[in-house]
Design goal:
Strand order of the largest sheet: 1-5-6-4-3-2
Radius of gyration: 22 Å
Structural class: alpha+beta
Number of strands: 10
Shape: globular
Oligomer: single chain
Distance between the termini: 42 Å
């Protein structure tokens, strides 16, 4: 029978993108009291969870929102994850991951009264619009193929040779459509890993800055 392990909680590290799979850390706290006769305590353990890109995309959660959510991860322990990628004490191959609803927040919400005055009616009319707006704000940001990491536009240094020209309208429009549909540019922006200087994809950088994107996918 295969080894199985379940880990619950919030991620304790940022997501590391390795192309077809992602990795992040989770911590599971031990029980405060051990059975009588056992002189050892069950301490907290940090797990490095490896999840496929396909599994992650099914969550419909952006990488920015991911650390603030709670998850249940079911998988198998693994000792073959490369040392530089496994920052936790134990590696876990994710077989299934699902978000856990925060019941505490739901219980803390006050119950609405059954008043049907003009103000209450107006709130009910605006509620579907607010929910629709929230769904758009939580729209999944797809991770373009080849992404090595995410970087803020302020960290990218643009050579003067790029700044001397403006990308064509057709190129700008293609990138704008990708941002509208996927929440980010269609392909990673190419940079120098040591200097963070822009090497290629100035059109994507130009439109991302025009659209006020906070972070963009990069490759080197």
């Amino acid at each position: 029978m295969a080894h199985k392990i379940s880990v619950t909680g919030c991620p304790t590290s940022s997501i590391q993108d390795y192309g077809k799979y992602l990795a992040f850390d989770m911590e599971e706290k031990g029980s405060p009291n051990a059975p009588k006769g056992i002189p050892f305590k069950s301490n907290a353990i940090t797990y490095t969870v490896v999840v496929s890109l396909k599994q992650f995309n099914k969550l419909n959660i952006s990488q920015e929102e991911f650390p603030q959510r709670r998850f249940l991860v079911q998988g198998e322990p693994c000792l073959d994850i490369p040392f530089e990628q496994c920052t936790g004490e134990i590696g876990v191959i994710c077989m299934q991951i699902q978000e856990i609803e925060d019941k505490g927040k739901e219980k803390g919400q006050p119950k609405q009264t059954a008043k049907k005055g003009s103000r209450a009616k107006k709130q009910e009319e605006n509620k579907p619009q607010e929910e629709s707006k929230q769904r758009k704000e939580k729209k999944q940001i797809l991770v373009p193929k080849g992404t090595r990491e995410w970087m803020s536009l302020e960290e990218i240094k643009v050579p003067e040779t790029f700044l001397q020209f403006t990308p064509g309208i057709a190129k700008q429009k293609a990138v704008e459509e990708s941002i509208e549909q996927n929440g980010t540019v269609d392909k990673p922006i190419i940079i120098d890993p040591n200097t963070h200087e822009l090497v290629d994809s100035y059109s994507r950088y130009f439109v991302a800055k025009k659209k006020n994107l906070e972070r963009v996918p990069v490759h080197y």
